[in-house]
Amino acid sequence: MKNIAHEIKWAIIFIVAGLAWMLLEKLTGLHDQHIDKHPIITNLFMIVAIAVYWFALSAKRKANGGTITFKKAFVSGLLMTLFITILTPLWQYVSVEIISPDYFKNVTDYSVAQKLMTAEEAAAYFNLRNYIISSLMFAPVTGIVTSALIALIVSRKKLV
Questions:
Q1: Neighbours of 105 (CB within 10 A)
Q2: 160 partner at 20 to 30 Å CA-CA among 66, 74, 82, 131?
Q3: 156 - beta bridge partners?
């Protein structure tokens, strides 16, 4: 367990950052009066996500005396991704049931009003079950890519 404590800690930090982002979106009106801007602005969370991975893998390198191989950094990122993926349903639940309980109604109404979807299509797409399934597919893919890229950046070998 001690071997993966670092990755569990950073996965929890990632989820907390995600919940803070959702709260920020809610407070700035991106879940209601500015919902038209939500699809663009929400993607800025990727900057936060990449930063969390960078800080996590840099801390792992520092804990290893300032050196870390690509493989060790990548595996650490993969473990983080695994724990983030496991916590994703909880993140989605808290986001749409506690932080922003009207989000699905608002985004459904907006999509129908803008003729982007029918009411039936919007109801089928904008719901907790679909968001959890989508997130469970998206989290591992983006986590693997992010882990590889950040591992390339932070990996350093000992100079002899």
A1: 13
A2: 74
A3: 68
- Per-residue pLDDT tens listing for the chain (160 residues): 668 999 999 999 999 999 999 999 999 999 999 999 999 999 999 999 999 999 999 999 999 999 999 999 999 999 999 999 999 999 999 999 999 999 999 999 999 999 999 999 999 999 999 999 999 999 999 999 999 999 999 998 765 4
Measured over the CA atoms of residue 115, residue 118, residue 123 and residue 125, the dihedral's sign is negative
The DSSP output letter for 156 is B
Helix ranges, the chain (H): 5-27, 38-41, 45-63, 70-93, 103-113, 119-125, 128-154
Distance between CA atoms of residues 34 and 61, nearest Å: 41
101: its two tokens: 């309980």
Under a CB-based contact definition with an 8 Å cutoff, are residues 55 and 73 in contact? no
* φ and ψ at residue 92, rounded to 5 degrees: -65, -45
Q: How far is CA 59 from CA 10, 46, 52, 64, 89, in A?
A: 10, 20, 10, 9, 27
Task: Look up residue 64 and give its two tokens.
Answer: 């290893």
What the block records as the tokens of 96 is 């749409």
Question: Using the 8-state DSSP alphabet, how is residue 67 labeled?
Answer: -
Q: What's at 75, amino acid-wise? A: V
